[in-house]
Amino acid sequence: MSDHTPSTRRNLPFRLSVPENDKLAIHVVYALFALSVVFQIPGMLGVILAYLKRGEVAGSYLETHVTWQIRTFWLWLLMVVAGWLTVILLVGWLILLAAHLWLIWRIVKGWLVLVDERPIDRPEAFF
Questions:
Q1: Is the Cβ–Cβ distance between 59 and 19 less than 8 Å?
Q2: What is the mean pLDDT of the segment spanning 98-116?
Q3: Which residue in 11, 29, 40, 77 has the fewest CB atoms around it within 10 Å?
């Protein structure tokens, strides 16, 4: 008997490419973003995963979460860069603080809505 029979494939722990795991992948992106409050690399991995899942969740409520996550990453990165560019003026520290507080707020809001299995109302909005 071959190891590639359909019954053997079903016994694998999980694959991110099956629809049942789409929600898991979106949770992972939120977790990676949460880690990026302290470390920068997880946020980059999270946005890559969000881009990879974008096509697979199209048409579902998860699509709004992916849009929210992608916009969160790029807007947060823009604020962080602006903060570091102006840090010498001391206003940069305030921008960096605001960027991180905004990121935390977006993660909490998005994650709570995901747990309720609802779409983000306006995923393109800043708040």
A1: no
A2: 97
A3: 11
Q: Dihedral sign, CA of 37, 38, 44, 47? A: negative
The answer, yes or no, to whether residue 8 has pLDDT greater than 50, is no
Residues in the chain: 127
What pTM does this model have? Answer: 0.82
Please check whether residue 87 is in contact with residue 93, taking contact to mean a CB–CB distance below 8 angstroms.
yes
Tokens matching residue 91: 């206003």
Contact by Cβ (8 Å): 76, 46: no
Distance separating the N- and C-terminal Cα atoms of the chain: 56
Residue type, 85: L
**Residue 65 neighbours by CB distance under 10 Å:** 28
8-state DSSP, 56: T
Cα–Cα distance measured from residue 18 to residue 9, given in angstroms and rounded to the nearest whole number: 12
99 burial (CB, 10 Å; 0-12 / 13-18 / 19+) is buried
Q: In the chain, where does DSSP find H-type helix?
A: 6-10, 22-35, 41-54, 62-85, 91-115
